[in-house]
Automatic annotation (TrEMBL):
One of its GO terms (molecular function) is nucleic acid binding. This is Uncharacterized protein LOC108045962. It is found in: Nucleus. It comes from Drosophila rhopaloa (Fruit fly). Pfam families: HTH_32. The lineage of its organism: Eukaryota, Metazoa, Ecdysozoa, Arthropoda, Hexapoda. One of its GO terms (cellular component) is nucleus. It comes from the Eukaryota.
Length: 259
C-alpha cells in the first residue's frame, strides 16, 4: 500500500494531474478516490502515513454510553431496551448492540411459577419422604395415577411473542376444547373418558361419572385379585369428603388428600 502511495506522490510532485496519475498507475489498480485522498493527506500533513484517530468516532455506543446503560440495568434489570433508548436519546438498535456486544446480556422471559412458602415446602418435603418410605416398604402396591386435561381442538391465534401469525384480524378467540380423563399404571391404562362440553367436574360428577363408572370397573378387571393403590392430585373435587369416603370403602388402597 505504501508503494502505491509513494508512486502517487512521486507523479504528483512531477506535475502530473490526478487523471493522468490514475492512467499511469493502472497496473497498480489505483482509482481516482485513492489518488485524491493520498494527495490530500500529503498536502495536509507532508506525509503519506495514516493519521491516527481518523475515521468515524463512536457516539451512541461509546464507553460513557455503555456505562450509563449498565447502571440503569443494575438499578432495574427489567428496564426495556426501548425505554432506555428514549431516556438516553439514542436508537434502539444502538441499545441492543450495547446489551449484546458490550454488556453480554440477553433478554429472558419471566417464567411464572407457584410461589411456595417455607412452611409449604417443608410440608411437601415431609409428605414426599413419607410416600417414598411407604412405596419402598411395599405398602403402596401397583400405584394408579389419574388426571384430566383440556385439549384445544383448533389452534388459538393470539399473536403472542413467540407464536406469531400474519392475519387481517384475530380469529378463533374461543376455540373448541375438550376435556378428557384417564388413569395409568405400570402395566396398563384405563379407557379414555371424554367429559361432555360445558360440564363442570364437581365432587358429584367426579364420583358418579368417573370414579364409579370409569376407574372402579377398569381397575377391578385389570388387577383382579392383586392389590392396587389409587393416587390423584389435590383438586377440590378429589378432596371432597364424600369422595374420600367413597374411595375408602371401594378401593383396596388410596393416597388420601392429607398424605
Amino acid at each position: 500500500m505504501d508503494f502505491k502511495r509513494n508512486s502517487v506522490i512521486a507523479l504528483h510532485l512531477a506535475g502530473k494531474s490526478q487523471p493522468s496519475i490514475v492512467r499511469e498507475l493502472k497496473l497498480l489498480k489505483v482509482n481516482k478516490v485513492f489518488v485524491y485522498r493520498t494527495i490530500t493527506r500529503y498536502n495536509d500533513t507532508g506525509s503519506i502515513a495514516k493519521r491516527h484517530g481518523g475515521g468515524h468516532q463512536k457516539t451512541a455506543t461509546s464507553r460513557e454510553m455503555v456505562q450509563k446503560v449498565k447502571k440503569r440495568l443494575e438499578r432495574n434489570p427489567r428496564r426495556s431496551a426501548n425505554q432506555m433508548a428514549k431516556e438516553l436519546k439514542i436508537s434502539d438498535r444502538s441499545i441492543r448492540r450495547i446489551l449484546k456486544n458490550d454488556l453480554k446480556v440477553k433478554p429472558y422471559k419471566i417464567q411464572k411459577a407457584h410461589d411456595l412458602t417455607s412452611k409449604q415446602r417443608q410440608v411437601r418435603l415431609e409428605r414426599a419422604k413419607e410416600l417414598l418410605r411407604l412405596a419402598e416398604s411395599g405398602q403402596l402396591p401397583n400405584i394408579v395415577f389419574s388426571d384430566k386435561n383440556i385439549f384445544t381442538i383448533e389452534q388459538q391465534f393470539v399473536n403472542s411473542q413467540n407464536d406469531r401469525v400474519n392475519l387481517t384480524d384475530r380469529s378463533c378467540e374461543n376455540p373448541p376444547q375438550i376435556m378428557v380423563w384417564a388413569a395409568v399404571t405400570a402395566d396398563g391404562r384405563s379407557p379414555i373418558i371424554f367429559i361432555e362440553p360445558g360440564v363442570k367436574v364437581n365432587a358429584q360428577y367426579y364420583r358418579e361419572s368417573i370414579l364409579k363408572v370409569a376407574l372402579k370397573p377398569w381397575a377391578d378387571k385389570h388387577f383382579g385379585d392383586r392389590p392396587w393403590t389409587f393416587q390423584q392430585d389435590s383438586a377440590p373435587s378429589h378432596k371432597a369428603r364424600l369422595n374420600q369416603e367413597w374411595l375408602e370403602n371401594n378401593v383396596p388402597n388410596f393416597i388420601t388428600s392429607t398424605q
